């Protein structure tokens, strides 16, 4: 090839090389699964696909400090408690037997522990039932462009619109179309983005919020809180995308 054509060819390669590097990066991310930022959290139907029904407070719930319990000892009203609060140390104070450590136990396991303590010295084959009246351990975090961000107890079933209302609602300049919900699932943080404006107008369903969820109103705040980047991992499917690190 003549030199003059070789010079033209080399000059034209400069932008091509840049494009090739960009394409190589995109292909590498595609091979890994997802290489993106928090802006790429799934939206619309893909986001709703990841919202399962909220589980009830049942056998899988673990008692936490500050929970309120009803403790019934069959045929022993003097030993039963209607509003027993679990202490910060994870104890509940019972008549006769004193403090009993129950934090981290299910209601059924706590019943067995209390029955065992009563049966050791005071009662023959006691029957004890523990019921979680107020599960303070079921909490959510609301952050970002809201009037009063913070940690809130989750009593019963709750939608995204109600969750934001717990924080006294969004600020006047809040970006309602970009609300990120972060959830811990299968050992990973995952995120999805929802449009609160559309939910309020009835144009989109109100997703269910689960215990442990973090709701961040406003994309800029979400990027700051989450560090912006998502893990380059195999795709997690239509729904929440995996986020780097732990909450």
TrEMBL record:
Alphabetical UniProt keywords: Signal
Molecular function, one GO term: polysaccharide transmembrane transporter activity
Domain of life: Bacteria
InterPro entries (UniProt xref): Poly_export (IPR049712), Poly_export_N (IPR003715), Soluble_ligand-bd (IPR019554)
Domain Polysaccharide export protein N-terminal: 57-133
One family name in Pfam for this protein: SLBB
Domain Soluble ligand binding, chain residue ranges per copy: 140-187
PANTHER family to which the protein is assigned, alphabetical: POLYSACCHARIDE EXPORT PROTEIN GFCE-RELATED (PTHR33619:SF3)
Full protein name: Polysaccharide export outer membrane protein
Source organism: Sphingobium indicum (strain DSM 16413 / CCM 7287 / MTCC 6362 / UT26 / NBRC 101211 / UT26S) (Sphingobium japonicum)
């Amino acid at each position: 090839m003549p030199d003059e054509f070789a010079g033209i060819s080399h000059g034209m390669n400069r932008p091509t090389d840049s494009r090739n590097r960009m394409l190589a990066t995109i292909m590498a991310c595609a091979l890994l699964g997802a290489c993106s930022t928090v802006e790429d959290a799934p939206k619309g139907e893909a986001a709703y696909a990841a919202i399962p029904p909220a589980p009830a407070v049942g056998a899988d719930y673990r008692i936490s400090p500050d929970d309120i319990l009803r403790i019934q000892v069959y045929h022993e009203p003097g030993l039963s408690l209607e509003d027993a609060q679990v202490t910060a140390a994870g104890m509940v104070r019972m008549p006769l037997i004193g403090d009993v450590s129950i934090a981290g136990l299910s209601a059924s396991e706590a019943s067995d522990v209390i029955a065992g303590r009563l049966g050791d010295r005071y009662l023959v084959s006691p029957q004890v039932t523990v019921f979680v009246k107020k599960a303070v351990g079921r909490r959510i975090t609301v952050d970002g462009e809201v009037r009063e961000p913070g940690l809130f107890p989750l009593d019963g079933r709750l939608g995204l619109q109600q969750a934001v209302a717990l924080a006294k609602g969004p600020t006047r300049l809040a970006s309602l179309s970009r609300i990120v919900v972060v959830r811990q699932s299968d050992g990973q943080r995952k995120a999805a983005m929802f449009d609160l404006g559309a939910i309020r107008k009835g144009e989109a369903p109100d997703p269910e919020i689960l215990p442990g969820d973090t709701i961040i109103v406003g994309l800029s705040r979400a990027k700051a809180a989450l560090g912006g980047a998502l893990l380059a991992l195999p795709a997690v499917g239509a729904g929440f995308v995996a986020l780097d690190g732990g909450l």
